[in-house]
Amino acid sequence: MYNILTPQAFVFMPTALAIVTSLFILFYISFTSNFHQTHLTFTHFSSFNSTSQKQVISLLGSTQSGGNGNIQSQRHMELNGKYVNDNEVFHDRDSFMDNYKEMNRSLKIYVYPHQKGDPFSNVLLAVDFEPGGNYASESYFKKVLVVSHFITKDPSNADLFFLPFSIARLRHDPRVGINGIKDFIKSYIFNISHEYPYWNRTNGADHFYVACHSIGRFAMEKVIDVKINAIQVVCSSGYFVSAYIPHKDASLPQIWPRPGGDPNLAPYKRKKLGFFAGSLNSPVRDKLLEWWGNDSDIFVHFGRLESSYAEELVDSKFCLHVKGYEVNTARIADALFYGCVPVIIANHYDLPFADVLDWKHFSIIIATLDIPLLKKILQGITQQEYLVLQSNVLKVRKHLQWHVSPVDFDAFYMVMYELWLRRSSLRLQ
């Protein structure tokens, strides 16, 4: 028998191995070429035309507003261009409706009692007028809550306990002011924890307070238990705000109450592609002005408007919410009220009622990094897409409106539902 492993055979083995390895590499490159093409499409997005950009956004799908990457806008397209929308504004409408009924039937809130003669009754009691202005949400909630069927006078029946101090009114009280809010809250928690047993049972975990002014996020720095344990229902609901803890805390919609009925203008009559008006008070707004300050389709104003604010909103297809000093402003609620599709340019914003409402069905969310792409993104939205978005805006705007006498599914009931969800999670712990 011949020995096939002759010395001559060893000479040819490296050559044979090299050939086999080369063939394997060529096969691998051919097999994975589609993947590499897709990856290159993401990497070199900025050099593509508008159609290519739409395809890339479709491949990426919906993303969180706080995500990273070059393209972080929420869209509603599949790769083949077919529109995807279930014509609903809820994540799960059936579950929400069932839970809403149970919340309405069973949720009970105990409010720590105070009298009109108390030294700080102006801070602790509900206002005796109809709230207005930029921070009205805080006053509206308390005014409606204290006369609602959710209130119980028996703390043993309470699911949650309301801390009724008003951050906005503390701010304007000359006895307290901005610099004295932290000490006031510290003293208030000390008093109720010594006068009542309820705070100490859970170290404040079944307690909540409501604040819309951004000062509220600093107010708890001398009472760490409130910051860590209590439910904070606040307008300044940014993921990167140290005082805000998503899922424990809840986002309060900042709503400037507007008079009259729900206005609307037919979509085809809205002349402007995009609109923004506000103060130049953040790097994000600086960037918006730099890119779109002189554009003929996106109208960006940082001074006096030639026409009224309401007329501008009604005349625009998309209304921009751009982060200022905080992630929150009343512009989202304004856009919805006037039938304009909100474009949210604010990273890491825990949007109001996001546990229930599916924001990608009635808004566009764009990372601040993508401000240079704003116009192409908005122009890339088809007429069919826009009509569905705008139709959903009209469906959802009732959830971001206040009423002195609450109406089912309005802002008050939606806040109560968010509290009910957190009360349920407390019971599971």
UniProtKB/TrEMBL annotation:
GO terms for cellular component: Golgi membrane. It is a single-pass type II membrane protein. Coiled coil: none annotated. Its main location: Golgi. It is found in: Golgi apparatus membrane. It comes from the Eukaryota. One of its GO terms (molecular function) is glycosyltransferase activity. The chain crosses the membrane at residues 9-31. Keywords: Glycosyltransferase, Golgi apparatus, Membrane, Signal-anchor, Transferase, Transmembrane, Transmembrane helix. Residues 104-380 form the Exostosin GT47 domain. Belongs to the glycosyltransferase 47 family. This is Exostosin GT47 domain-containing protein. It comes from Anisodus acutangulus.
